[in-house]
Every structure is written in C-alpha cells, then in structure tokens.
Amino acid sequence: MRARVLGLGNVLMGDDAFGPYVVRLIEAFYVMPPEVEVIDVGTPGLDLIPYVCGVDLLLIVDTVRAEGAAGDIRVFGSADILANAVQPRLSPHDPGVKEALLTAAVAGAAPRDVLLVGVIPQSTEVGVELSRPVRAALAPTVAWVVTELTARAIGPVLRGVPRQPSTWWERKPEGSDPGLTLV
C-alpha cells in the first residue's frame, strides 16, 4: 500500500497554516516508511491533481468550514467530499480538492481511500501565528494521522530524538521550545 499525507494551507494566513504545520510536526517527530510520503503542498489550487494520483490512501490535512467552535476537528471521507457542490473558486489558491479527486478518477488514477481531517479555524487573516484553539488541535491531528497509517500496517516510527519542526514562517526566538508534546 502506498500512502500520501498532504498538508494544505497558506502559512501566512493565520490558522490556514494548520495543514503545513501538522506535516512539519510529523516530519519532526516520526520517520515514515518508504511507502508513505508526507508533503506540505501549500496552496496548490488545481495543481493539487498530481498529488492525489497514484496512491492507495490519501490523507489530507487542512482547515475546514464547518459547524462548531474554532479548534474542533472534523474528518471527512471521499463520499463526504464528493457529495458537496463544487465551491466557487475565489482565488487561484483555493485547494480544489473535489475537482482534483474527480479529475484523478477520470484519469483512472484516483486513490482508493481518501480522508480529510480538518480543523475549524478561528482566524485566517494575514499573520503567522496559529490561534490558541487551533494550536491545541495539532497534537490530536498528528495522532490521528499516525493512527490511520498504523491501522493500515504502514505506520511511522517515533524518532528517538525529535527534530525541531521546520516552521520557518513563525517568529520565535532562537533556540526556543515550540511548546508541543506529541508523545
């Protein structure tokens, strides 16, 4: 089984950095087996199509518009994603997940299993900080990704010594602790 974990979002738009942040934490705390790719795809728009093709399992991490409070985590399967009407693309950076999945299906390269884990953002205004409720959703989301991969016998291995997450967009003092514990 081949799997891909995609972090979607704009790191310069507050809580929209959730997907890239989760990917960076996974890379810092875990070693992935060769069958699993973990990629921060940023804001790909329709360029998302190549990233959804050619894998058995696709896990997408992003912010979502849903009922609930900021920081609440929601999980959607491919049926949920495909059931919603195509949303108007307000910018060339809108992710276009449904369109990418439909295009991959037409090409015969769609993933067999798709799950999107999303967090409800508090703010997606210009800025480089995650809000407190969204920051609190980081560890449970990383754990969810690890659990999904492990359930399919392609789970990552916890690093003996974690690396510092490469969250280059955050302003933090040199040598500071990101304050996150995933174990």
Task: Write a brief structural summary.
This protein is of the alpha/beta class and about 180 residues long.
Architecture overview:
This protein is α/β, with parallel strands linked by helices. It has a single domain, classed as Rossmann fold (3-Layer(aba) Sandwich). It is 28% helix and 20% strand. The chain contains six helices and seven strands. The strands form two sheets. Strands 3-1-4-6-5 form a five-stranded mixed sheet. The protein has a two-stranded antiparallel ribbon with strand order 2-7. The two termini are 26 Å apart. The model has no long low-confidence stretch (mean pLDDT 89).
Helix content: 25-40%
- Tell me, rounded to a whole number, the average pLDDT: 89
Classified by CATH, the class is Alpha Beta
β-strand percent reads 15-25%
Give me the CATH fold name.
Answer: Rossmann fold
Distance between the termini: 26 Å
Number of domains: 1
Assigned CATH superfamily: HybD-like
Shape: globular
CATH architecture level-2 label? 3-Layer(aba) Sandwich
Biggest sheet statistics:
5 strands, mixed
Continuous helix count: 6
DSSP E strands, number = 7
Give the SSE order as H and E letters.
Answer: EHEEHEEHHEHHE
Identify the strand order in the major beta sheet.
Answer: 3-1-4-6-5
By oligomeric state, this entry counts as single chain
Uncertain residue ranges? none
Structural class by SSE content = alpha/beta
